[in-house]
Q: What sequence folds into this?
């Protein structure tokens, strides 16, 4: 576009002829003017800049009241998301929105958040934000794991090496007085082997907010959970003369646990082949054809009769912690515990991964695996990057249910015969493959090492293709 | 609900079974699960260049997706939050057990 045309075009848009020719003299074309910043124009036009800038919608840089500027910005944002070269103090949300546009979905939300936090209320413009995002993207790409990297091996080594430093056999009182929890290597093996029942199941029960600081309420909930058998709250005795069994309730203990005599009577009556009735303070249990032996076995039955509580919970300990009272149980029955009123159903957890899977689903199980493995390592003073554990947990749960890591799970389900044979039970796998006539596709790592071919990983993962002329 | 001598404390009467259901999806260890539409699934598979078979799986009667009404073959989008990556999305295809 010639100089003349530029002047004409500018005049047409309402710029005075004097300004237009000045701009054209400086080598500005119509497009360039549109894109120019206010300062740039000011250098050429001086006092007349404002009029020109208004015509082209260039943001005017003048001290204005904040409210008005904000309004203008909003208007602009809805009109066109053009690059502003004007520096301004943007809020965190504005920076985040802009950064998201520049990142084109290549940066995770957390990184964008960090950029937004760093640039918020700093004197920035779009170009600066774009530059920051581009640089971040470069660093992010560099920090990412390369394609073809053997992340599984790295995870295995990163968990395995600290594992060698763990105490082989630790039974510890982990923070919780009196409750015995398996820790150290045995626990780690338990987690990764996906055992059905941990050796020492334990539930951590948090209470709802309104009763968190109420000792009486905590005790009452504890008494609902803890299994109370008849022997805990009553004395049992054989009346040899009348040939029946006497149950003498211990009233004080019953009061502590919130049980009355009626409840005991109802429970006792449920036993088949006996008759029970109240006689004063004692419950008399009689048999149709009593013998001393029968009475003795009846006592054994009565002794272990469950009056109250949840199956599997042998003991409940109430502890006062920073946030209030927290209940710890020896034994676990997550499903039943989660039905009890007054407990915080959003935070109560058990260390039994299988139970977590049944109640909360696969994602809940995954998080439990991560938390348990991480805290087990942590407790021994070993710091393992959480990403290694997350990878293992993801692999354990990617099938929709929990798979063990070892030969009964992930390693045992490998499709390749040679890979399985290279791991454990070599002869068994080869024999079975021979009988079945299995085919090995040689796609994995171990099987290719066995036959002496380059593996499909790292530099071996790159193939050259020759494109002829 | 039984009145107790402690204000604000509710202790349910009787045996513990059959009480109101807990809401699994509110638990801190359960990230939000969401059913994806056909279009979203197509976009996802195209983005990663994979088929549905290659996605991680989730059982149809997983407690976390029970009330989503997911059928076999649907894809669930899971919004995970972790201290390392902040928010990230994970996808699982629904399978029959």
A:
């Amino acid at each position: 576009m010639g100089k003349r045309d530029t002047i004409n075009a500018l005049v047409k848009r309402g710029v005075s002829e004097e300004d237009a020719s000045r701009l054209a003299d400086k080598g500005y074309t119509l497009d360039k003017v549109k894109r120019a910043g206010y300062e740039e124009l000011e250098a050429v036009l001086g006092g007349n800049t404002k009029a020109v800038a208004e015509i082209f919608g260039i943001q005017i840089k003048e001290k204005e009241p904040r409210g008005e500027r904000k309004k203008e910005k909003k208007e602009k944002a809805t009109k066109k998301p053009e690059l502003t070269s004007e520096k301004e103090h943007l809020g965190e949300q504005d920076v985040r929105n802009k950064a998201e546009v520049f990142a084109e979905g290549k940066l995770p939300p957390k990184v964008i958040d960090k950029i937004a936090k760093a640039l918020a209320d700093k004197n920035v413009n779009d170009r600066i934000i774009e530059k920051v995002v581009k640089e971040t993207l470069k660093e992010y790409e560099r920090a990412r794991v390369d394609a073809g990297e053997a992340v599984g091996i790295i995870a295995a080594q990163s968990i395995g090496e600290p594992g060698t430093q763990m105490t082989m056999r630790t039974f510890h009182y982990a923070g919780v007085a009196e409750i015995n929890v398996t820790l150290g290597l045995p626990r780690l093996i338990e987690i990764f082997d996906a055992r059905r029942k941990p050796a020492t199941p334990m539930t951590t029960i948090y209470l709802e907010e309104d009763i968190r600081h109420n000792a009486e309420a905590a005790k009452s909930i504890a008494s609902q959970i803890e299994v109370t058998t008849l022997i805990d709250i009553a004395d049992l005795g054989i009346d040899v003369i009348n040939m029946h069994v006497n149950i003498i309730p211990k009233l004080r203990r019953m009061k502590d646990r919130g049980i009355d005599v009626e409840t005991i009577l109802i429970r006792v009556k449920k036993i088949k082949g006996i008759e029970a009735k109240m006689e004063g303070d004692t419950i008399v249990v009689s048999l149709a054809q009593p013998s001393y032996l029968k009475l003795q076995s009846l006592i054994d039955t009565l002794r272990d009769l469950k009056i109250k509580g949840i199956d599997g919970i042998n003991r409940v300990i109430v502890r006062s912690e920073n946030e209030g009272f927290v209940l710890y149980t020896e034994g676990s029955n997550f499903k039943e515990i989660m039905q009890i009123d007054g407990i915080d159903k959003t935070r109560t957890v058990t260390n039994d991964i299988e139970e977590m899977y049944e109640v909360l689903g696969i994602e809940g199980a995954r998080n439990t695996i991560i938390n348990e493995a991480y805290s087990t390592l942590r407790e021994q003073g070993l710091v393992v990057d959480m990403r290694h554990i997350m990878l293992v947990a993801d692999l354990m749960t990617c099938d929709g249910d929990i798979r063990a890591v070892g030969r009964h799970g992930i390693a045992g389900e490998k499709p390749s015969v040679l890979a399985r044979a290279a791991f454990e039970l070599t002869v068994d796998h080869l024999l079975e493959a021979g009988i079945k006539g299995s085919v090995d596709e040689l796609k994995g790592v171990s099987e290719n090492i066995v036959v002496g071919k380059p593996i499909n990983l790292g530099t071996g993962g790159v193939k050259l293709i020759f494109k002829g002329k | 609900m039984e009145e107790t001598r402690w204000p604000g404390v509710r202790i349910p009467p009787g045996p513990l079974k059959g009480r109101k259901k807990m809401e699994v999806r509110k638990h801190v260890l359960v990230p939000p699960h969401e059913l994806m539409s056909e279009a979203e699934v197509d976009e996802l598979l195209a983005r990663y260049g994979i088929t549905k078979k290659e996605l991680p799986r989730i059982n149809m009667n997983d407690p976390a997706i029970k009330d989503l009404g997911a059928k076999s073959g649907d894809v669930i989008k899971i919004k995970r939050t972790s201290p390392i990556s902040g928010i990230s999305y994970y996808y699982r295809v629904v399978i029959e057990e």
Observations:
- Chain B touches chain A through 41 residues (CB under 8 Å).
